[in-house]
Specification:
binds adenosine-5'-diphosphate; 54% helix; 8 helices; binds thymidine-5'-diphosphate; Rossmann fold; alpha/beta; 208 residues
């Protein structure tokens, strides 16, 4: 397990508007029928229903603890219904966000909650991607891209530039402590150039 030929679990992470959804899609397109593209929160029918509870509405709608439980519940459904079946079928499962997002958004941004995030992950998820691409870029530029979308899912993006800077630092910290799994990719380049970098690193990992 873990090598491109026999499938594997690949995640994309980064702050809002960093281009990670674009890159997840471009990698899936490059891999063709071998790939299953999915996303969090969501990626399964029930998990997409939980997504709506999380990304729409008042930013103060949930307490931090309730929010962690909802993200974990969505991830558990995604794991059961989409991720494990795809990996069992030998596919390359590409997820736009996974547990690193909870570590950073719910954990690093509110440091006191990180132990709870880790305990829930161990208890209910217990799986890490084989390979994670962190699409890294300056929050000011990323925020301008993200807010331009007006998708109606702006609950997290509206938290502002300072929050996005803390998130970027949190993702880079995770990359430093998990160098075997996380590749930092400079996202401040054209989408095609970033995609070529991602594909080259994916193939290098697959043949390592
Ligand atoms: P994320 O999933 O990280 O929020 P998206 O992939 O949805 O980011 O991209 C956010 C916006 O920026 C979209 O409008 C997208 O078309 C645009 N975009 C994505 N990648 C690039 C890039 N490398 N350069 C310029 N614009 C980009
Ligand atoms: P996403 O759809 O990836 O948003 P974007 O394309 O703008 O990056 O994710 C929705 C929001 O949910 C995003 O702001 C990040 C947040 N999020 C968490 O706070 N914790 C999590 O565990 C996940 C998966 C996402």
């Amino acid at each position: 397990m873990g090598r491109a030929g026999a499938g594997g679990f690949v995640s994309f992470e980064g702050i809002d508007g960093s281009g990670k959804s674009t890159q997840a899609r471009l990698l899936a397109e490059a891999l063709g029928a071998q790939a299953v593209l999915t996303r969090e929160p969501g990626g399964a029918e029930g998990a997409e229903e939980i997504r709506r509870l999380l990304v729409e509405g008042d930013p103060a709608r949930w307490s931090p603890e309730t929010e962690i439980l909802l993200f974990t519940a969505a991830r558990r459904d995604h794991l059961e219904k989409t991720i494990r079946p795809a990996l069992a079928a030998g596919k390359t499962l590409i997820s736009d966000r996974f547990a690193d997002s909870t570590r950073v958004y719910q954990g690093a941004a509110r440091a006191a909650l990180r132990p709870m995030v880790d305990q829930l992950h161990d208890l209910m998820i217990g799986l890490e991607p084989d390979l994670t691409f962190l699409i890294d870029m300056d929050p000011e530029a990323a925020l301008a891209r993200g807010l331009a979308r007006h998708s109606g899912e702006d609950r997290f993006e509206e938290l502002g530039l300072g929050f996005q800077q803390a998130l970027r630092a949190g993702f880079l910290d995770l990359a430093r402590t998990n160098p075997h799994r996380i590749r930092v990719i400079d996202g401040a380049r054209s989408a095609d150039v970033v995609a070529a970098d991602v594909l080259a690193q994916f193939h290098a990992w697959g043949t390592a």
